[in-house]
Amino acid sequence: MSQHIISMKDFSRDEIDIILNMAREFEPIARGSKSSLLSGKILATLFYEPSTRTRLSFETAMKRLGGDVIDLGSVESSSVAKGETLADTIRVIGNYANAIVLRHPREGAARMAAEYSKVPIINAGDGAGHHPTQTLLDLYTIARESNLSDMRIALVGDLKYGRTVHSLAYALSLYHADITLISPKQLQMPDIIKKDLKKQGANIRETSNIEEVIGEIDVLYVTRIQKERFPDTAEYQKVAGIYRVTEELLENARDNLIIMHPMPRVDEIDPSVDRTKYARYFQQSFYGVPVRMTLLAMAMGAV
Ligand code: NCD
């Protein structure tokens, strides 16, 4: 496995399984048991786009393992505002930290950063590209709350701009999942990804209608329409609020269905769904901690 974590395309199923198994061992530490595994190590977090869960769960993971975190802070308060290039920022921070978590609005930014970095780069989202650490925690959630084998899963919402679903789809094809892609026409999964998935032998179908499949799936993975990626707000308005998961929709769900969402949600899951037995999205955000502990321990050579 390369020391950088850039895209799910770079992972084999065996490598993913190793990470998921190790995350299980880190769970007690994620819940508060003491560890000094990464004591003396420093993680740098560079977020050029907003983040709550990703940044704070990396920070929690690092601190619970006894390590420290330095944070670039807001882009406006750093030298990025003076015109410093990403390449220079990465070269400098590599002198301070043992690994760098990077989120950037440009697709390909993490791959580029890795070329300049002497410490591992962990991609925490590059534009509409990839979000591999989210995928690993998504897979971990499925393994813990459902079943990774013979899974029937529907990905719903913004499949065009959503980086979480791009990364997840690649990984699901390694697990031979039965995948239904649910989106309006203008937000379908990019052809290039569908082609790759089919090449890997993935079983995919497309529809625009959740009702059609709700009774047949084990996992419903809901995503936000990525407003900030639309070139034109009028185009966004046409699809805003197009899907809403409600208790009524779930009347036809299978008993074992789990509902996931990388969060933040806007209006695509009605808050009344939170108290149903199907909801797992808050649990899912907790699982980010043991999974990111594993990735940090690996990146820093501690396991
Ligand atoms: C996602 C992201 O940033 O891509 N959030 C996250 O990391 N949990 C999903 C989103 O913003 O919709």
Describe this structure as you would to a colleague.
With 303 residues, the protein is an alpha/beta fold. The protein folds into two domains: 8-130 and 288-299, 3-Layer(aba) Sandwich (Rossmann fold); 132-285, Rossmann fold (3-Layer(aba) Sandwich), CATH 3.40.50.1370. The chain is 37% helix and 15% strand. The protein has ten helices and nine strands. Strands 7-6-5-8-9 form a five-stranded parallel sheet. A four-stranded parallel sheet has the order 2-1-3-4, sandwiched between helices. Strand 8, helix 9 and strand 9 (258-260) form a beta-alpha-beta unit. Helix 3 crosses helix 4, helix 5 (132-145) crosses helix 10 and helix 6 (163-174) runs parallel beside helix 7. The longest helix is centred in the last third of the chain and has 19 residues, at 281-299. The radius of gyration is 19 Å and the shape is globular. The two termini are 13 Å apart. The mean pLDDT is 96. The structure holds N-carbamoyl-L-aspartate.
Write a short abstract of this structure.
The chain is α/β, with parallel strands linked by helices. It has helices at about 15-30, 55-65, 85-95, 110-115, 130-145, 165-175, 190-200, 210-215, 235-240, 280-300, and strands at about 40-45, 70, 100-105, 120-125, 150-155, 180, 205, 220, 260.
Uncertain runs are none
Helical run tally = 10
Largest sheet: 5 strands, parallel
Helix/strand/pairing category? alpha/beta
Keywords:
303 residues; alpha/beta; Rossmann fold; 2 domains; 10 helices; binds N-carbamoyl-L-aspartate
